[in-house]
Amino acid sequence: MKVLILGASGATGKQVVMQMIKRGISTRIVVRESAYLPREIIDASNVEIIKGSITEFSSEKLKELVKDCTAVVSCLGHNITFNGMFGKPRLLVYSTVKRICEAIEEKGGGKVKLVLMSTTAFTNTHIGEKNTTGEKIIFSLLKVLLPPHLDNMRVASFLIEKIGKDNPEIEWAAVRPDGLINEDEVSRYNVSEFILRSPISNPGQTSRINVGHFMAELLTDNKLWDKWKYKTPVIYNEKQKEK
Ligand SMILES: NC(=O)c1ccc[n+]([C@@H]2O[C@H](COP(=O)([O-])OP(=O)(O)OC[C@H]3O[C@@H](n4cnc5c(N)ncnc54)[C@H](OP(=O)(O)O)[C@@H]3O)[C@@H](O)[C@H]2O)c1
Question: Which pTM does this prediction carry?
Fold first, then answer.
């Protein structure tokens, strides 16, 4: 098994890479020239580091990246700076995941597992999730005012509606953490098919290391994959810290 990780220099992406290193899984990561990576990742013998900006890679280069991979993880997200939120590329995650899917389809040769870092701000209406009136108003405003929110909505919808369940080359899962926090150790966490608390009025917590752990489990435990493929699992830390 070989896993390609996008957004590997991010706070969650690094956690996914560390989980791969722990499991001895052959991993290819793409990071920008400016990215900071810890020594454990740079020195890991099972990690191949490709430098460059994924949004500027040609279709040929993307095909080369996925060529020998049986799984892809996207932990891409907009930097929390004015430029990251409002500058280009506005649909960073959607357009990259779409292009990666095209590369996987062109490559052919068997199913690739794709795991997307999504968010509880994505309401999966396809499984009957609904927003309250207040949430509807806030999410509609965010869609217009906050490009990263629109990006997150677009990419999750793309997997559900365009890739779907019958794609001969791609199986996918969109993992939805709630409010991200940093913790040093993996702790107990719960995974649910549905959002259990309002991300607006009663947000929960999910540690990035737990997201990394769950993504790695998804890719290495076939039963777990079969349970969550084509779904949008929501992950919460079991113990919620006092706010
Ligand atoms: N904050 C929350 O509570 C929350 C909750 C649920 C879901 N989420 C989602 O999860 C995502 C990941 O969270 P995180 O905290 O791990 O994010 P992060 O630390 O900001 O990581 C984002 C990753 O995307 C890369 N990236 C950003 N802009 C790029 C560009 N133009 N071209 C190529 N790569 C680019 C970054 O690369 P560099 O290192 O080079 O910048 C980094 O690797 C968020 O962005 C959000 O959509 C967030």
Answer: 0.97
